Amino acid sequence: MTTKKLVNLALQGGGSHGAFAWGVLDRLLEDERIGIEGVVGTSAGAMNAAVLAYGLTIGGNAGARAKLREFWTRVGEVARHSPLQPSLLDRATSPGNMDHSPLWFMFDAMTRFWSPYQFNPLNSHPLRDVLMEVVDFDRLRRESGVRLFTCAANVKSGRIRVFECREMCIEAVLASACLPFMFQAVEVDGEHYWDGGYMGNPPIFPLIYNCESRDVLLVMINPIVIEEVPTTAQAIFDRINTLSFNSSLMREMRAINFVTRLVDGGYDDGGRLKRMFVHCVDAEEEMRKLGVSSKLNAQWDFLMWLHELGRGRATAFLEANYDKLGRESSTDLAARFL
Fold this sequence. Notes:
Layout: E1 5-11, H1 18-30, E2 34-41, H2 44-79, H3 88-93, H4 102-113, H5 116-119, H6 128-134, H7 137-143, E3 147-154, E4 160-164, H8 170-176, E5 186-188, E6 191-195, H9 205-210, E7 215-219, H10 233-264, E8 277-281, H11 284-287, H12 300-321, H13 333-337
Parallel strand pairs: 1-2, 1-7, 2-3, 7-8
Antiparallel strand pairs: 3-4, 3-6, 5-6
Helix pairs in contact: 1-2, 1-12, 2-7
């Protein structure tokens, strides 16, 4: 019998681009050599994390794969009735952008003039029922063997809130995915929260302080590097979005790199500093070609394109870096995040 290599997963948010992380998770769960100790997620990453943890709880790796497919299939079914659909020109020029869709332009303009308290007074959320149907949160809190964390941004205090598995509920997940221009702030324990991506996308520290495994596998959705300076209004807005949602991760990775250098130099502060091994799975080249509009495109063909892209990138990662798990980082933090 072989011993599984335990890893921790950090899942970025990014709307429907979370289907890329679904593909990565699907491939990792297929590999029986790997075990998952902890998972932290933000926004769509929080949804993936909760569904993953629940699936592992009720059925191991096979159960997690089935639950993730069920969740994203239901997301695709909801999207069939959405007015936000890519135009024929969009379909001909991009796998997922809706930049030429008249209804996308109308929606984008509406959210700049009206708040969700005005255009969505009943505070409906299309994924609330989906999550409730896929995940039994009571059972997840009682039985989960995975250390699960999601995060949200406290609207009034400006502080990050990390929800642990014992606190996990539908509100905690929706709070992590609450884009303020689309949804009313989510109330949890008397406090109001917006999307966790503004404070941590995702935060790494819950895994460092609460898990034994030193390996963190970061599934990245938002591209760090772009090829040219944006000059159109939409391209500028897209870049502002990715910069803001990557900023907290960049700072935290710089801190991890600083601690790594200290530990490698022989200083661990009496054992209080922990040497981490960081790994990344991403698709920067493909993701940088997708604009903000594509994050609201949950058509099934686009979700499956992202899923297959994620599976392919996870396969390449395993082939190149499996032997590094538990031994060293496969990502050069200084080159990538500094």
